[in-house]
Write a structure and sequence with these properties.
33% of the residues lie in helices and 31% in strands. The protein is an alpha+beta fold. β3 and β4 form a beta hairpin. α3 packs antiparallel against α4 and α9 packs antiparallel against α12. The longest helix is centred in the last third of the chain and has 26 residues. The relative contact order is 0.10.
Length: 419
């Protein structure tokens, strides 16, 4: 029997080792983590692609964001408004309202607001603060003030004025206002700096007036990333709600109004409210607005202005000045009328002599001037000349003479000539 020759061994190395057995579940996990990494890298890289991410229900996210700003102890809010009118006249107006809101450890909220606006080349600017149940205000720029002819002491430009709730209540009571109306006014003033306008969004949501989009859009806002939600307004439901809360409200303009979507921007991973934009168009024009928020729960202090003048004191001073101007104007008119009366007297008597104490109409005018000014006017006359002088303000006099002069002088003349 011939011996069997064994086959030669195959020493050719395999190019790849046999694949290990991988559980299907592990493959799923790896794919899931790879997708997570890709999404995170895409978000960090940002801006190359458009990403729409559903983090949570838009209504929940926005409700939480509005609740967060309502409860914030402090924040800064900027409101920019633009109005464009194209009928019957074309013009635009822009304004900004910058507000700091502080919630101190005790007491009500404090606010500091700067309002500015421009239109047709005119600029208006004012500042207001509300704290400790007192409203403070200052006019920074107002182009029509020079037309109001304020004196140096009563010109309000650049001065702080104050009015407290007690001042308002006392003034309204003196004017005979109904106690219920007084309470309403005080309540409205107390709401300055409160966030009821934001909290009323709950009612708009419940009534179905605000209609939320189905998802959020990721966008870059400044140096950070944020979520943006589009909210549309149901015009018919808004009209019904307005009629419900105030039957006297006119809702005719709403029928022709077109509302732009309101875009609300909140933090990417929190509920910090960052921006609200929107607008609407009506017959003859349009309105757009942008509201931005920053320094939420930051260090903000609203301080009481120094040297504020009580508003009631200013009003009383202004009224006294106005009465003084009216009195001065009346004195000028009365004294000026003496010229024609004196000429009638001269035509009748061929002389001005005894003019001041014989003509009943002239005596009546001089008496009226004395009552108005509190000072007896000067009246002198001879056969050919006369002069009358009455005080219209401190160290200022109104003079009328037989030469035809009628005007102000700084002292009482000695002779018969005002000049």
């Amino acid at each position: 029997m011939e011996p069997t020759t064994p086959a030669p061994a195959d020493f050719t190395p395999s190019p790849f080792p046999p694949p290990p057995s991988i559980p299907t579940r592990s493959v799923g996990k790896k794919i899931f983590f790879i997708l997570i990494i890709v999404i995170l890298l895409a978000l960090i890289g940002g801006g190359v692609f458009a990403y729409t991410v559903v983090f949570e229900a838009p209504r929940v996210a926005l409700t939480e964001s509005f609740a967060a700003i309502t409860k914030a102890r402090s924040f800064h809010q900027d409101v920019a408004i633009k109005v464009a009118v194209d009928s019957p006249t074309t013009f635009t107006a822009e304004g900004t309202i910058a507000t700091d809101i502080e919630q101190p450890a005790s007491g009500g909220r404090r606010t500091a607001t700067i309002i500015s606006g421009k239109s047709a080349g005119f600029f208006v600017s004012a500042e207001a603060r509300f704290l400790d149940q007192t409203l403070y205000g200052k006019v920074i720029e107002f182009p029509l003030l020079p037309l109001l002819d304020f004196s140096t002491s009563t010109n309000p430009l650049g001065k702080w004025y104050s009015v407290s709730l007690n001042d308002v209540e006392s003034f309204m009571a003196e004017q005979g206002a109904d106690p219920a109306d007084i309470a309403k006014v005080k309540d409205q003033i107390n709401k300055i700096g409160q966030t009821e306008a934001i909290s009323q969004l709950d009612a708009l949501i419940e009534k179905g007036i605000l209609v939320f989009g189905s998802r959020a859009t990721v966008a870059q806002v400044g140096d950070t990333w944020a979520r943006q939600y589009a909210v549309t307004i149901d015009k018919d439901k808004l009209a019904s709600w307005l009629a419900e809360i105030d039957p006297r409200a006119s809702i005719e303009a709403l029928k022709s109004a077109t509302f732009d979507p309101v875009i609300v921007t909140v933090g990417l991973f929190d509920y910090s409210l960052k921006k609200i934009t929107g607008g609407f168009k009506i017959s003859g024009g349009s309105v757009s607005f942008v509201v931005t928020y920053r320094d939420i729960n930051g260090s903000i202090t609203v301080a009481k202005p120094n040297n504020a003048i009580p508003l009631m004191q200013y009003v009383e001073q202004s009224m006294t000045e106005a009465r003084g101007k009216a009195t001065s104007a009346e004195i000028k008119v009365n004294l000026s009328s003496l010229r024609s009366r004196a000429e009638l007297y001269y035509d009748k008597n061929k002389s001005y002599a005894n003019l001041c104490n014989k003509d009943s109409s002239i005596i009546a005018v001089l008496k009226n001037v004395e009552e108005k000014s509190g000072q007896k006017p000067t009246c002198r006359a001879n056969s050919k000349s006369f002069i009358t002088v009455g005080e219209i303000a401190s160290s200022t006099f109104w003079c009328v003479d037989s030469t035809g002069f009628s005007g102000s002088v700084d002292k009482i003349p000695i002779g018969f000539d005002c000049k």
